[in-house]
Amino acid sequence: MTLLRRHLAGVLVLGIPLAWIVIFMLVPYAIIGTYSFWTKTYPTFQPDFQFGNYATLFTDPQYLQVLLRTLKISALVSVASLALAYPFAYWLVFRCRSAGVRTWLYMAVIAPLWVSYLLRAYIWKTILGTEGILNSFLMWAGFTDAPSDIFLYNQFAMILTLTYIFIPFMVMPIYTALERIPPNLAEASADLGQTPWQTFRKVTLPLSTPGIAAGFTLTFCLSFGDFIAPFLVGGPDGNLIAGVIQTQFGSALNWPLGSALSIVMLVIVLSIVSLSDRLERSSRIGAH
Amino acid sequence: MARRSSRSLISRYGADTAFMTFVALLMAFLYVPIWVLITFSFSSSRSLTWPIPGFTLDWYRKLFANADLQTAVWNSFYVATFATLLALMVGVAAAMALHRYDFPGKTLFRRLILLPITLPGIVTGISMLNMFSLFGFPLSLETVIFGHATALLGVVVTQVYARLQRLPRSLAEASGDLGATPLRTFLYVTLPNLRSAIIGAGLLSFVLSFDEIPVTFFLTGRDNTLPMYIYSTMRRGVTPEINAVGTLIVLASLVLIVISVVVTRDKRS
User: Which residues make beta-bridge pairs with A46?
Assistant: First the structure.
């Protein structure tokens, strides 16, 4: 009886999530995987096994360009987030003397995650637009005479907005990584005659690599797959890969091509995640 | 020697000032836009111009008269509640499985269940859309619930698993030695210790689901959730009504943050 119960508990605890993964993740992925080999015969699609959709993605400049642009934008967003998040987290962990201030500032950076993602994208549209707040502020202050359309609907607006949205995902893992570094390491390094900069470069920075990798993974993947913010602030040259996928399943009605794009996205995200996993594991082994 | 130490004192002071300025600018970057949103929800002008011509509560009055919006809010509550419950049920089980058992393919299992954290919502949405339409499942708020629960599983698992790892194993062992069945041990020993982690994960899941667009976009039928409603309004243009909804959302988020801080703190003492 107890044996059966013990067994039953194990089956439930493992079985439920396993069934969920199979039904709601593996089967759907398999389905789009299958669709990605089908042919489009207007207005429907035919079962097939051919690599034409993938060939289109990597040879048609239209798609290749979007793919490269998306990679570029997500990389820039990650770099910008890192440039803002690292000094901030470093200051919080090593320079900020009051524990209260530390907690409050950390919370202040994380809190926007709880505030609607959509709003955080929308705010920048209202600020940067031609009839937006920045323009009317500049005119009111006498810097410009006429509203300018240079702020919104370009890649800079997109990078700015995505950085604004995803920066908490960079701060959290870096803060955690820096917090784990024992303070006596820096003291030992200083005692051995290293300057603060040398200590940072040779001790702190290498030990915080797992945090940087985790933050980079999150911000990169999240901005890589976003289609709402690019739509709101990106304008015509702001079409990213997720926007193209959305079009294939919407107005373009080319599910096979859209599926192939989704699979490409899945593969890119998986490779980044496993790369960062490996990096984290190797640095952990190196630390011991 | 004295000169050197005074120089390092100056450079340290300089570095501190530079850091403080940087932190202040970062805070301004994060919070000025939110204040802008709140301020303009009270602006009497329809266009978003500075300076604000006058103060009004009209936009809020309009919100409370907007039936579509209220349906959308209600739909979002429905979806977020059930998606959170499902994600908690499956997620706590998965965290237990990861913590307690060793089984073949465990790494793959962990990676898959955490995948939706980094996987863009559009892939989850598109792939589930294809499955539902292949099996002839009509799209509805219920399909959205399954989509959200899948996307949120990783959040619950991360938080609950982290707590499980900090729990001393001896607690469950003692309970077993005293003759409790695994189920009783789970209900009376493990679960109470997980309480704050579960509530914290639940609150975060609720907020994320309430706010979700990419998955909802593909999985919803004719019903709109709140963010979908706001999104479709936005496509038609910028209005102060959106700022008013936004201000209310910011307020609600603030309340939830306070709750989550209070709930997760009571355990630490």
Answer: A39
